[in-house]
């Protein structure tokens, strides 16, 4: 696993009997029999270039290995870096989700793209009724509505830019992310997490990386106002603490 990243892939691999190791070096993935990465990554939005992934897939394929790329956030990512059109070469599987960009987490729907032999093996394991009919209908309509997708990408990009400006105004600079979430990394992340929580704003805090926060986009005008008030309270508290230290 190329980490830090979404934890469920490691859990599922361990349940399947694999010895799982999280590595921070992309090149180390070539040593595995099964290499998994999320692209764009969750929670920091890191993107690995398609050409690097293709070289890795070729290396794994040559020894009977497999590359799995979770592209759950590629709908708002740089689509030119997707491996969706390359899976026919074999040795790679691309995973896609409807729970992120399409906001359909409740239907528990996703799909895998792979070469015909791998698809056949997956279908045999999953059986003929892996997904409910209504969920399939939702998915087909979502994928076919290209106008909605284009409009939503523009809207999300604008809202992500607005959110960055708001965080930056109060001294919480955004490091990276996607247009669906923003990734912050700075020393007082625990303090901001606490103040936001006190104002009814929930962001993701990582116990193993206390300096990191992941924030989604506010959904309404009231939520934007609540976030702004919380950030103002946090900035005021930091100013007071700084002045006390100076005295």
Describe this structure in words.
- This protein is of the alpha/beta class.
- The protein has 2 domains: 8-144, Aspartate Aminotransferase, domain 2 (3-Layer(aba) Sandwich); 147-246, Alpha-Beta Complex (Aspartate Aminotransferase, domain 1).
- Helix content is 42%, strand content 17%.
- The strands form 2 sheets. It has a 4-stranded mixed beta sheet with strand order 1-2-3-4, with helices on one face.
- Strand 7 (204-206) and strand 8 form a beta hairpin.
- The longest helix is centred in the last third of the chain and has 26 residues, at 221-246.
- It is globular and about 70 Å long.
- The protein starts with 7 loop residues before the first helix and ends with a helix.
- The relative contact order is 0.09.
Looking at this protein, list some descriptive labels.
four-stranded antiparallel β-sheet, Aspartate Aminotransferase, domain 2, four-stranded mixed β-sheet, 17% strand, Aspartate Aminotransferase, domain 1, 2 domains, 247 residues, alpha/beta
